[in-house]
Amino acid sequence: MNATIKDIALECCVSTATVSLALAGKKGRVSAETTTRILETAARLQYTPNRAAVSLATHHTKLVGVLMSDLRNTHIAQLFMAIEEVLQSHGYTLICHVLDDKTADIGRISSELNGSGVEGILYAHPIFLDPDESFYRIREFLNNAGVPIICNEDVGLTCAGMDVIFDFYQAGYLATRHLIECGHQVIGCVSGPANYRVSEQRLRGYRDALEEGSIAYDPKLVYYGDYSTAGAEPALSYLLGQKTTAIFSFNDEMAFALYRSAHQYGLSIPQDISVIGCDNVPFCNVLEVPLSTVHVPAEEMGREMAESLITAIEESHNKSRTQHIYAPALILRGSVNRRYADNATKLGKY
Amino acid sequence: MNATIKDIALECCVSTATVSLALAGKKGRVSAETTTRILETAARLQYTPNRAAVSLATHHTKLVGVLMSDLRNTHIAQLFMAIEEVLQSHGYTLICHVLDDKTADIGRISSELNGSGVEGILYAHPIFLDPDESFYRIREFLNNAGVPIICNEDVGLTCAGMDVIFDFYQAGYLATRHLIECGHQVIGCVSGPANYRVSEQRLRGYRDALEEGSIAYDPKLVYYGDYSTAGAEPALSYLLGQKTTAIFSFNDEMAFALYRSAHQYGLSIPQDISVIGCDNVPFCNVLEVPLSTVHVPAEEMGREMAESLITAIEESHNKSRTQHIYAPALILRGSVNRRYADNATKLGKY
DNA sequence: CTGAAAGCGCTAACAA
DNA sequence: TTGTTAGCGCTTTCAG
Fold it and tell me: pLDDT per residue over A199-254, tens digit each?
């Protein structure tokens, strides 16, 4: 059993109150000699405050709940690492929950979070569009947490905090427009699940870019994946069947599946099929034909989320809710074929 | 403020003890009617037990500390996800600490862990060979934790638990032997930091395989990286300067740097240089020339670690310490050139 | 400057 | 079956 302030008090022949005061460094409350004596025996006894007791007495836990999706996606891992670093450096301990796609256990997690006395929550998981049960439960959870929440999406929360969001609509627009500018006319996309709001945002960007380019939107040209490489395995074969010459993948991870399939079919990127991704994970650069993509500043966003949360926790008088929106940037590498653009110019075909 | 058992007791006109008993589901201790009445008002009041209070009273936290290295490495993320899943499903909450390479803050983390009352620790971070300060502090920490620890390496701990370790020596041996069997004679390697035991183990495997193949070990043929892609960036150029025809990279992540450099120099794998990695992360398969590698069963190991820890926590009478050693398996793909082997046969050159 | 005492929310004997 | 009581380790008035 660890040493307690009682042990120290006994050794130093003072009361536990004095020990507590001295340890807390309340200057002027305890004499210098007593303080040093207490500090010394505390060190000797390897005293560590019992957090449960401290929390119980102070209602202060220095605990933050982090709700994330699958970290095997490098982009998510980047976000998480940035969060961890900031929280760590500010003395917060992080309680980590990975949510699966169903988020069916949001009820359990929410009560766990309540009970564990987290002082704030970082929510970095897709929000659903369809108003099914899990949707309502998440909304309810986010709104009733009673502690500051920083959210990865705009969810119109009632409590204090900041939404750190990325403009996925713009990302979808930019990626698609680039493809159009390169002369592509039949542009497929590999979407995430249809009921994720972040999917819908990208899809709108994609559609608006098409419209701007006077290309009709064809629902058959969108393949619905799940943001994982494995789930996007059939995408290429499907989209090729639709005669697409270029594909906007809603994240890099799924674009990698396109690469893999392309090799399997003996097709080359970008000669036979152009691909653009989204996220800009480091692996894009490892590919023989580096993946053109849309940069999402995961680490900056993670830092911003964590810092905002700490601010919200420590200045809890500030009850307003604000937003920080990050803009996308195109990263052009080698995976999009410009030949079509040349054709367009040379032949006046389109 | 959340509802407490006191609130429930007041509403139900019973004592807090009765509420506690009823909520704990101790059958036979509280009458059926009272129990349902209590359960109902608990639900109505949205009662959630205060964990701090429970821990304080029971010395039971359902908290597990997880010490990991950088999760941006997919292999580590895989390990982590498996751990998280098992812990989650057994009702444990996980407190996550990412250690940096210095692990300089092991002191702070260790006291944080002690104070937070974790019931067990999962340690998945490289152990250092050189007996410098951080080495001793980690050893001390691991040995004095006072709770079961499951470790990723054999560290000869005194407390209960199981080491879930991977035979990196064998991994190094197999990878190198494969390269030799393919006819390579000048085989470089991209090591991790020299003072990591896992590096040293692989290096021994590499040396023993060379010796078995009657190839002299040349220290100039080992490039020391840091297990990250970025850190291995100069490796290829260096090793090419040493006339190597094949490279064993101590993990896939660094092998990716080799790929990237190869593209930059206009070299192809495996025609100009053969590469074999270690870990077998999913990206290996995305590369145009899939990376041959040594499979490390991250997810199985993660599950095993978490399950062993739970067993150790729940049957803390079992004070023995055991080991589970995982064996490597070669995964042969396209990144190693066999031409040298043919030459060897045809020309009898070697 | 220091100590006594109460209380944070819960559990666990022991009585009744 | 239920209530009383004490206590987990710490903080924090309030007296002294």
Answer: 999 999 999 999 999 999 999 999 999 999 999 999 999 999 999 999 999 999 99
Q: Does any strand D atom come closer than 7 Å to the Cβ of B55? A: no
Q: Which of B147, B288, B299, B335 to probe the A interface (max A CBs under 10 A)?
A: B288
Q: Which of A50, A78, A254 to mutate to test the interface with B (most CBs of B within 10 A)?
A: A50
We report the CATH number of the domain holding residue B162 as: 3.40.50.2300
Q: What is the pTM assigned to this prediction?
A: 0.92
Peptide bond preceding B193: is omega within 30 degrees of 0, i.e. cis?
no
Whether residue B127 is contained in a domain is answered as yes
pLDDT (mean) for A270-274: 95
Q: Name the residue closest to the C1' of D13 by its CA.
A: A17
| Cβ pair A85, A266 in contact under 8 A | no
Q: Is B263 within 8 Å of A72 when comparing Cβ atoms?
A: no
In a domain, A56, yes or no: no
Structure tokens at B219: 């220290």
Beta strand residue intervals within chain B, DSSP E: 63-68, 93-98, 120-124, 149-151, 161-166, 187-191, 222-224, 246-249, 274-276, 293-295, 321-326, 329-331
B71 touches chain A (CB under 8 A): yes
Q: Do A259 and B229 touch (CB under 8 A)?
A: no
**Considering only CB atoms, which chain A residues are within 8 Å of B99?**
none
Q: Can you give the pLDDT at residue B66?
A: 94
Residue lying closest to nucleotide D11, CA to C1': A57
- Report the greatest alpha carbon distance in chain A: 95
**Co-location of B9 and B37 in the same domain:** yes
* B224: containing domain: 168-296+331-349
pLDDT digits (tens, 9 = 90+) for A29-47: 888 888 999 889 999 988 8
How many Å does it take to go from CA A120 to C1' D12?
A: 25
Compute the mean pLDDT over every residue in chain B, rounded to the nearest whole number: 89
Is 90 exceeded by the pLDDT of residue B236? yes
